[in-house]
Amino acid sequence: xxxxxxxxxxxxxxxxxxxxxxxxxxxxxxxxxxxxxxxxxxxxxxxxxxxxxxxxxxxxxxxxxxxxxxxxxxxxxxxxxxxxxxxxxxxxxxxxxxxxxxxxxxxxxxxxxxxxxxxxxxxxxxxxxxxxxxxxxxxxxxxxxxxxxxxxxxxxxxxxxxxxxxxxxxxxxxxxxxxxxxxx
Length: 184
Known about the structure:
- Helices cover 74% and strands 0% of the residues.
- By secondary structure, the chain is an all-alpha fold.
- 26% of the residues are buried.
């Protein structure tokens, strides 16, 4: 017995999965952003009960500025992840992928957008991880980098470079496809 799944069915499954991940990442980004605002503006006790049971109270008590910088870097990282999945969902939902002509300007633009966002995630993740390590050297008690979503900068960089390479391949495919259309 052989199971055959068409490309359209795979795209529908990927669209649903992308929506699920996008909603989850948006909730996470909103949670971090709200808790940062709540702690800095309304109630400092929020640092002890930060998003996802993180305790950043020692950082907040040490220096409000350090707390602001650390939470800003975390918020940028999670917001960029939400933007990444927004681009994916938008592209899949609007059905801009034409399977009869796989090499298109839209596909290249989509891949480049993902590459630039992944590069941004890599940069801010690395910056945030180094900042947290610097705070740890100062003797401030901090949660693990995994819990702060500041790990994997090298993976995001690798993904970004891979996407840039794929974008160049698509660019070459667009040129070959347009040359073939002209000769026919």
